Amino acid sequence: MDKNELAEELKRRQLVKAEDIVSSINKVSPDKISVQQFKDAVNSCSDNEIIMSYLVCSGCGAPILPYETDVDAITRESKNIAEWFSRLDEAIAAHGDGVRTYQKL
User: Fold this and answer.
1) What is the pLDDT of residue 90?
2) From its phi and psi, is residue 61 left (phi > 0), alpha (psi between -120 and 50) or beta?
3) What is the Cα–Cα distance from 76 to 68, expressed in whole angstroms?
4) Which of 25, 85, 86, 101 has its Cα between 20 and 30 A from that of 64?
5) Between the CA of residue 90 and those of 4, 9, 41, what are the distances in Å?
6) Domain boundaries, the chain
7) Contacts for 32 with CB less than 8 Å, ≥ 6 apart
8) DSSP per-residue letters across 33-94
9) Up-side HSE of residue 93: CA atoms within 13 Å toward CB?
10) C-beta of residue 20 within 8 angstroms of C-beta of residue 98
11) How far is Cα 58 from Cα 62, in angstroms, rounded to an integer?
12) DSSP bridge pairs for 63
């Protein structure tokens, strides 16, 4: 799978879930957005931006993987989006272990 294919699939997933995502955002954010605003924002993302939106830790804000090396390698080696997410899950678990270890120090 190449980077463009991955980015298009990630955008598609966001657009399919747009109503649910906007509903969740609007429950907690004082700045309400419309579904169309969300879709426009997703469609305006570059390939790198949409990919990175999946690769930033919600706990610490740091990238889960170094983009230039690991993300490119995972993308090239994955045959499909399911395999990419499986590999990402492994990286998230490893990142989470590192964050928990750091927090204990």
Assistant:
1) 86
2) left
3) 12
4) 25
5) 22, 20, 28
6) 3-104
7) 26
8) --HHHHHHHHHH--HHHHHHHTSB-TTT-SBSS-IIIIIHHHHHH-SSHHHHHHHHHHHHHH
9) 6
10) no
11) 8
12) 56
Q: What is the DSSP letter of 29?
A: -
| 34, 51, 52 from 68: Cα distances, Å | 34, 12, 11
Mean pLDDT split into 10-residue runs, the chain, 105 residues: 90 94 90 94 93 81 73 84 87 70 41
Q: Token pair of 20, please?
A: 């649910």
Q: What's residue 68's pLDDT? A: 61
Q: What is the pTM of this model?
A: 0.72
Q: What is the Cα–Cα distance from 61 to 54, expressed in whole angstroms?
A: 12
